[in-house]
Amino acid sequence: KMETVIRRSMNAHYEVTIGIPVYRSVQYIDDAFKSALNQTFPNIEFLIVDDCGSDGSMDIIANYKNNHPRGKDIRIIANEMNRGVSYCRNRIIDEAMGKYLYFMDSDDTIEPDTIQLLFDSLTRNHAQIAYGSYEIIDGINHSSPEIYQKEALVLNGQDELAMYAFRNNHVFHVTTCNHLVDMEFLRQSKLKFIDASYWEDLVYTTEMVIKVERAVLLPNITYHYLRRPGSLSHYS
Predict the structure, then answer these.
(1) Do residues 120 and 130 make contact, with C-beta atoms less than 8 angstroms apart?
(2) CA distance 142 to 127
(3) Left (φ > 0), alpha (ψ -120 to 50) or beta: where does 153 sit?
(4) How deeply is 49 buried, as exposed, middle or buried, from its count of CB atoms within 10 A (0-12, 13-18, 19+)?
(5) Fewer CB within 10 Å, N or C, the chain?
(6) Whole-angstrom distance, CA of residue 226 vs CA of residue 28
(7) 220 by DSSP, 3-state: which?
């Protein structure tokens, strides 16, 4: 841990870290990672955790690292064995070099201006976190996308975000992905993911809204979540 802290302090020159756990997503990782690399925001670390899927997903990442103009900003961390998504996300929290962190999954995609929109809103409002809106793409029944669009809102004060979230939980669907969070706040809050097979994000996101005192909500659709056969979240 001390080595991690020293390495982070010496190399903390990124504004944003996009953290992506990767496990058996070879059919989707190319589109997902390409959407991350295509961000208009210039100063991003792409932190990949290889969770030992052995299906060729990491070969695609390695190709981008070796050949893409942003390849030097791609950092790969390999687990010694398959450890699950909670462990991977906690490693990202520990290892991220950016001032702000954005989680995304390896089978989803984001808009080219996702990071720029969230960054501008967060910094302009001196917030700890900025939430974008998102859509769910049905890759199972191929029905119309489900839109989860937030209202444009700035929430300041202790428990303001928590009260808003709990009163509006029918429309305020908070996920682990699609928010930009201040890393200093995140680490001081000691927020981590529990070791669970599913719903591990529910505890994290619930504790998050309780601790946040300054938040921004955006109506912009910045994230495209793929509901697909075989995914853990769909099974859950």
Answers:
(1) no
(2) 37
(3) beta
(4) buried
(5) N
(6) 9
(7) strand
Residue recorded with tokens 């993911």: 193
Tokens coding 165: 């979230």
* DSSP states of 159-208: THHHHHHHHTTTT----SSSEEEEHHHHHHHT------SS-HHHHHHHHH
Q: Which residues, listed in sequence order, are joined to residue 20 by a DSSP beta bridge? A: 48
Q: What is the pLDDT of residues 113-141, one digit of tens each?
A: 999 999 999 999 999 999 999 999 876 66
Tokens of 140: 């199972």
Which residue intervals of the chain are DSSP H helices? 2-11, 29-37, 57-67, 85-95, 114-124, 160-167, 183-189, 200-211, 232-235
The answer on pLDDT for 235 being more than 50 is: no
Separation between Cα atoms, residue 171 and residue 169, nearest integer Å: 5
